[in-house]
């Protein structure tokens, strides 16, 4: 049986067919594909539903304020994606009369959309014959063909994998094939401990047949960054600043921040001595993109109102009893929630 037929047979029985963006609406498919970049389906679903409710059309997104978009994106991570969809919506509104392009070369020119995402959008929306090559699909192909990835650059490996996936994609059912490949990669052919015995490809997969133990796609070692948040409080309000000091939190609001070098050993040592600081938040580690953030905080309480008057759009007093529509990174949201419970 052909590779593609095995995949399609599996899809008809086990494939995911009721995801909230599977409506052949190219706008919603595009939003979902951007949200799904480096993020699991179960994490994306609640964010997607809220996003769809607030921005039901491309036009509504194009005319939205970036702070509203970042507010809905808060906690999903990789915030450059939110900036990219806003830029893309504006470009489509101005350049394409508000209609998402169907030409793959035009789609690939849009911010944050590469060949794989472009293929996914057009395949899922119109069943066009374009393949998807995300990390899940790459892992299936590498294992199935027992490709030795040692001594290959990313470009060399991608060239091999694109050639393979383009050979396998069926002419008439690319939508189902692409969905099945991504499902199998995320559910069965997982990075660790794959469930090979229930994979539709296991009878012809070299990884399974020959029990090959080869180097997997290696994730880059995460950089460690020490952060000290200055939590400045006046009554129920906390000072937040819109900053770009951390690239992954572009245009988000967070506490005044100080950086310092850190190691696991230092972290544990500082954690034991934390009682020497004026803090009500225990230190914690936050994992984001390719960094580990070792987060500490100390609290400064202001009693005189006149001190807080020098405020502008980039610097706000955030009332924890009145939610405000601004983008806030996940660890800051976590701290604000804890402060609210202790208020």
UniProtKB/TrEMBL annotation:
GO molecular function annotation: 8-oxo-7,8-dihydroguanine DNA N-glycosylase activity; adenine/guanine mispair binding; iron-sulfur cluster binding; metal ion binding; oxidized purine DNA binding; purine-specific mismatch base pair DNA N-glycosylase activity
InterPro entries under this entry?
A/G_AdeGlyc_MutY, DNA_glycosylase, Endonuclease-III-like_CS2, HhH-GPD_domain, HhH_base_excis_C, HhH_motif, MIG/MutY
Reaction equation(s) it catalyzes: Hydrolyzes free adenine bases from 7,8-dihydro-8-oxoguanine:adenine mismatched double-stranded DNA, leaving an apurinic site
Q: Which Pfam families does this UniProt record tie to the protein? A: HHH, HhH-GPD
Q: What highest taxon heads this organism's lineage?
A: Bacteria
Family, as annotated: Belongs to the Nth/MutY family.
Q: What does this protein do?
A: Adenine glycosylase active on G-A mispairs. MutY also corrects error-prone DNA synthesis past GO lesions which are due to the oxidatively damaged form of guanine: 7,8-dihydro-8-oxoguanine (8-oxo-dGTP).
Give the protein name, as stated in the record: Adenine DNA glycosylase
Q: Which species does this protein come from?
A: Buchnera aphidicola (Cinara laricifoliae)
């Amino acid at each position: 049986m052909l590779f593609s037929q095995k995949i399609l047979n599996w899809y008809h029985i086990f494939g995911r067919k009721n995801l909230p963006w599977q409506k052949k609406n190219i706008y919603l498919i595009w939003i979902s594909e951007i949200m799904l970049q480096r993020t699991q389906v179960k994490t994306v679903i609640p964010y997607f539903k809220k996003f769809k409710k607030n921005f039901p059309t491309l036009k509504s997104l194009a005319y939205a304020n970036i702070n509203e978009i970042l507010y809905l994106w808060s906690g999903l991570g990789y915030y450059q994606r939110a900036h990219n969809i806003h830029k893309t919506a504006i470009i489509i509104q101005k350049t394409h009369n508000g209609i998402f392009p169907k030409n793959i070369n035009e789609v690939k020119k849009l911010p944050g959309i590469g060949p794989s995402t472009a293929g996914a959008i057009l395949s899922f929306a119109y069943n066009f014959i374009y393949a998807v090559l995300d990390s899940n699909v790459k892992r299936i192909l590498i294992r199935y063909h027992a490709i030795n990835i040692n001594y290959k650059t990313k470009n060399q490996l991608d060239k091999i994998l694109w050639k393979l996936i383009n050979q396998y994609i069926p002419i008439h059912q690319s939508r189902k094939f692409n969905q099945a490949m991504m499902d199998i990669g995320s559910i069965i052919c997982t990075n660790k401990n794959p469930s090979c015995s229930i994979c539709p490809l296991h009878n012809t997969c070299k990884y399974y047949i020959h029990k090959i133990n080869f180097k997997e796609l290696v994730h880059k070692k995460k950089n460690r960054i020490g952060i000290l948040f200055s939590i400045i409080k006046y009554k129920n309000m906390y000072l937040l600043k819109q900053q770009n000091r951390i690239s992954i939190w572009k245009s988000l609001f967070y506490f005044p921040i100080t950086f310092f070098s850190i190691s696991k050993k230092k972290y544990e040592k500082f954690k034991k001595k934390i009682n020497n600081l004026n803090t009500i938040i225990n230190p914690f580690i936050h994992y984001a993109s390719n960094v580990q953030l070792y987060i500490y905080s100390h609290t400064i309480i202001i009693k005189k109102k006149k001190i807080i008057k020098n405020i502008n759009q980039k610097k706000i007093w955030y009332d924890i009893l009145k939610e405000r529509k601004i983008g806030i990174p996940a660890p800051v949201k976590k701290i604000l929630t804890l402060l609210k419970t202790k208020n």
